[in-house]
Design goal:
With 406 residues, the protein is an alpha/beta fold. It is 42% helix and 14% strand. It is built from 15 helices and 13 strands. The strands form three sheets. It has a seven-stranded mixed sheet, sandwiched between helices. Strands 9-10-13-12 form a four-stranded antiparallel sheet. Helix 7 (137-144) links the parallel strand 3 and strand 4. The chain is globular. The structure holds pyridoxal-5'-phosphate (PLP). Pyridoxal-5'-phosphate binds next to helix 6.
């Protein structure tokens, strides 16, 4: 007979977990994902993975590579021809010279690069400064090795560009590094050159390493131009540049990223990298070569589509009484919920229940994200129109109008 009073006992495995894993497991999972799974026909504007296909010539190169036998390990640092193509791209597009044999490491997505970098820099108790709101994989990676992310608040009033003095105020003897994620997830801001130069001066003054996560570099709009941190005067030797193919070439599922950094750093992380994944998938590396060496109008097409989607969505939000930060890059829209007076988690839950539209609460991106939410524009304009229509009918939005009228 089943004993309903039995409380599930943790397995011996669960009681042997490391402190770091316990800490990360103790973080509450996103309850909205469970809820979304129970509802029908949810419009998911949630993950950073748009619907657009990988351009055909890149897919063809990946298929060809499979036929040609690229089904084995590659060198730990990556296929030499990919390292070469990355070095040429960095020289021509970003204005920084890297030695393809010694200063480039191809990773299994930029995500592995983030983890490797944290593991390589942080001793237990060490800190890394990260402008907030932020991409929280940095926190989990830092915590896994006993380090800690110190969030540096930014605000919509400053267009989410970090204030150098706020960075400087938080530097302690344990601060090892500063993360510069520009263009930025989740807000879509781009740091102006002047700010980058001020951050470079701080890095030099306080002997900090700069982790420049440039994964959204090609998805900028209008006048906004991305400048690589390593290209700033004197910065190459203290910058670890992280980049990848997921966003610019719609290649999230191929899992190819890279680190460009001075040779002593690349050499130092080789063994750990080998331990993690040995190498990125060989055929995907060949596809990445095609992405870099093939026609680039596919990137311009993506940017045009994302810009159209953003303009459409922001206009729709404004028509129903919400506002948003005008993104300078990416495919995200950072929705301003302050007019609702609700916490972002409550707003997003109600929106999901009442409109079947899933966006992520800003609080999920750190304390400075409260009062906002991230919509990832991963669906065509017609579906975004449907999302706005549904939102307009949701009680949580209609209340806004009633309040405005009363
Ligand atoms: N860095 C940032 C800022 C991101 O937003 C993401 C993914 O969303 C990554 C790194 C990881 O990207 P990849 O798909 O290359 O692992």
């Amino acid at each position: 007979m089943r004993d309903d009073t039995t409380v599930a006992r943790p397995t011996p495995i669960a009681t042997h977990l490391s402190a770091a894993i316990r800490r990360s497991a103790a973080r509450p999972p996103n309850p909205l994902l469970d809820l979304a799974g129970q509802l029908a026909d949810v419009i998911r504007l949630s993950r950073g993975d748009p619907d657009l296909p990988t351009p055909a010539h890149i897919v063809a190169a990946g298929k060809r590579a499979l036929d040609e036998g690229y089904t084995h390990y590659t060198p730990v640092n990556g296929l030499p021809e990919l390292c070469q193509a990355i070095a040429e791209k960095l020289a021509h597009q970003n204005g920084v010279e890297f030695d393809p044999d010694r200063e480039i490491l191809v990773t299994t997505g930029a995500q592995e690069a983030v983890f490797l970098t944290m593991a390589a820099l942080l001793d237990p108790g060490d800190e890394i400064l990260v402008p907030d709101p932020h991409y929280t994989s940095y926190d989990l990676a830092a915590e896994a090795v006993g380090g800690r992310v110190v969030p540096v608040p930014t605000s919509i009033g400053d267009a989410y560009v970090v204030r150098p003095e706020e960075i400087e105020r938080r530097i302690t003897p344990r601060t090892k590094a500063l993360a510069v994620i520009s263009p930025h997830n989740p807000t879509g801001t781009v740091y102006p050159l002047e700010t980058l130069q001020q951050l470079a001066a701080i890095a030099e003054r306080h002997d900090l390493i700069v982790i420049a996560d440039e994964i959204y570099e090609l998805l900028t709009f209008g006048e906004n131009r991305h400048v690589s941190f390593a290209a700033l005067s004197g910065m190459k030797e203290r910058t670890i540049t992280i980049n990848g193919f997921s966003k610019a070439y719609a290649m999230t599922g191929w899992r190819v990223g890279y680190i460009a950094a001075p040779t002593d750093f690349i050499a130092a992380i080789g063994a750990l990298r080998h331990t993690l994944t040995i190498c990125a998938p060989a055929f995907a590396q060949k596809a990445a070569v095609a992405a870099l060496t093939g026609p680039q109008d596919c990137v311009r097409d993506l940017v045009r589509i994302y810009a159209e989607r953003q303009q459409f969505f922001i206009k729709g939000l404004r028509a129903i009484g919400l506002d948003a930060f005008e993104p300078r890059a990416t495919f995200y829209v950072w929705v301003d919920l302050r007019a609702t007076g609700l916490r972002s988690s409550e707003f997003c839950e109600r929106l999901l229940r009442e409109a079947r539209v899933l966006i992520y609460p800003g609080s999920q991106f750190g304390q400075a994200g409260e009062g906002f939410a991230r919509a990832s524009l991963t669906v065509p304009v017609e579906r975004l129109a449907e999302a706005i229509d549904r939102m307009a009918e949701a009680k949580v939005i209609r209340q806004l109008h009633q309040e405005a009228m009363s």
